[in-house]
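Researcher: I'd like a structural prediction for the single chain below. Treat it as a standalone chain; there are no partners to consider.
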Amino acid sequence: MPKAQGISQDFVSIRDIKDNVVIQKNGQMSMVVLASSVNFALKSLDEQKAILMQFQQFLNTLDFSLQIYVQSRKLNIEPYLDVLSGLEVKQDNDLMRIQLREYMEFIRTFTEDIDVMSKNFFVVIPYSPAKINITKGITDIFTGTTKTSNLPTEARFEEHRVQLEQRVGMVTEGLARVGVRTVTLQKDDLVELFYHLYNPADATGSAPLVDNA
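Model: Treating it as a single chain, here is the predicted structure.
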């Protein structure tokens, strides 16, 4: 392992990612789901009230804490422009070719003047095999500030994972009632998420985040 990577991993709270479960150095286990958005502003007043009521009821049914993480990235428009460029070459109609070219120039100029951002919404569901000090709260999966409990043994990992998946099911069902679709992140998705979290300047890097040594 490169020396620079080894040094940076000293500041990462993640010990391993196993069976789509993030295991932190303090033993806490977490799963992450990607959540869709709801265009709240376009809803009627009654629909907005219903969504808020459902979300409040959902939160009240939980007996554990959640962490919601919003990721904003500058949208890379180049792949879209490449597609348009390919269509322009294949276009037989001169007028359509001119319109495509003007549209591409408009998109390119617009995105140069204004940063177009894409947003992803993640919900982190934690599970601690051992009781934690409630005065300190749960560990923040992105900073790793709480230092309680130990790493789960291989024999008990499956038991803890089942408990964690039950929590994920509760969250998935609760969010579905307010119109939010979710998908559980797989190991490769988790590695990519945390790699870009700890390396925001590297938009294309794919080096492994966790140290399994």
